[in-house]
Specification:
mainly alpha, 14 helices, 2 strands
Length: about 300
């Protein structure tokens, strides 16, 4: 088996694990408040990563420390929004809304002075339409659930998860730049440790009702999301993307909401309904169009400087 094929298969496995964490967190929130769950999960992952990459941390540069701090802060915001949103929305819907982050990346890069391919704009439009169908429920008593809608029914969890998508989009951009200068072994332990620190500090400030019941289900969810879902998946991603083109990796990562919806259906019978399925399909199509067919182009002046 070629190294490239191995990388693709490992990325599929990591995406499957990430997709399954939505349902794991959804169950865990019955026994633990969302911000506290995040704090404990990330603290466990930080300790494991610190032990694994202890030698690399001894030669940590100031630049890697600054980059890891920025990435960890964005991760903290993303996970806090996501877990808080899962209190009010379904696991499958949360996964599809989180996938919007992949579409937001080219738009944020365009705002920084890069031209966006028309197919990327088409992908963004499809994702926005899907988000509308997924998050805005049909008005009560309407003859068709696809045309008559009520903005008053917008779920609080959907809005919180949109904040998660925006945070993760910024994290993807910052991490992409930092990874070109600093090693994964230096960046990841710092970013996860910073993320855990922010989470631990925010629990007594931002969480109004903190509760914890040490049930077997909660312990299993913490172990699963911290070790396979955080430590293992970050390591897999760092190794596999050395041998996988970015467009291929993006295609694989876009399967995350599909895995989440499938696992949610198989384990707890969670259904999106016809309207939700159409919305999720449009979001997935928008992500694929943006990442596989579209591209972010640099301005002519910048290109002329690079080629001249």
């Amino acid at each position: 088996m070629s190294r490239s094929l191995q990388a693709h298969l490992w990325l599929v496995l990591a995406t499957l694990v990430w997709g399954s964490t939505f349902i794991a967190i959804k169950f865990a929130l019955d026994d633990c408040s969302p911000l506290l769950f995040n704090a404990v999960r990330m603290a466990i992952a930080a300790v494991v990563l610190g032990a694994m990459f202890f030698r690399q941390q001894r030669s940590l540069s100031a630049g890697a420390l600054r980059a890891g701090f920025a990435i960890g802060t964005l991760l903290w915001l993303g996970y806090e929004f996501q877990s808080a949103g899962l209190v009010y929305t379904t696991a499958s819907k949360s996964a599809f809304v989180t996938a919007i982050s992949v579409v937001l990346v080219p738009l944020l890069l365009a705002a920084a002075g890069r031209r966006v391919h028309p197919l990327t704009l088409a992908g963004v439009a499809a994702a926005c339409a899907g988000l509308y169908l997924l998050c805005i429920p049909a008005a009560e008593g309407s003859s068709t659930s696809f045309h008559s809608t009520s903005l008053s029914g917008l779920n609080r969890g959907d809005l919180l998860t949109l904040g998660c998508a925006l945070s993760f989009a910024f994290e993807i951009i910052v991490l992409g730049r930092a990874a070109q200068r600093y090693s994964f072994a230096q960046l990841v332990p710092v970013q996860i440790s910073v993320c855990a620190a922010w989470m631990l500090l925010s629990v007594p400030i931002a969480e109004l009702h903190v509760f914890l019941r040490l049930t077997p289900g909660l312990m299993a969810a913490l172990a699963y999301t911290a070790i396979p879902g955080t430590v293992a998946c970050f390591i897999i991603q760092a190794w596999a993307q050395r041998y996988t083109p970015p467009t291929h990796a993006a295609l694989i990562f876009s399967l995350e909401p599909v895995f989440a919806a499938l696992i949610s259906y198989l384990l707890i019978g969670e259904r999106l309904g016809r309207r939700g399925l159409l919305g999720g399909t449009l979001i997935l199509a928008g992500v694929l169009a943006s990442e596989l067919l579209g591209q972010v182009q640099k301005p002519e002046k910048e290109l002329a400087q690079e080629t001249g």
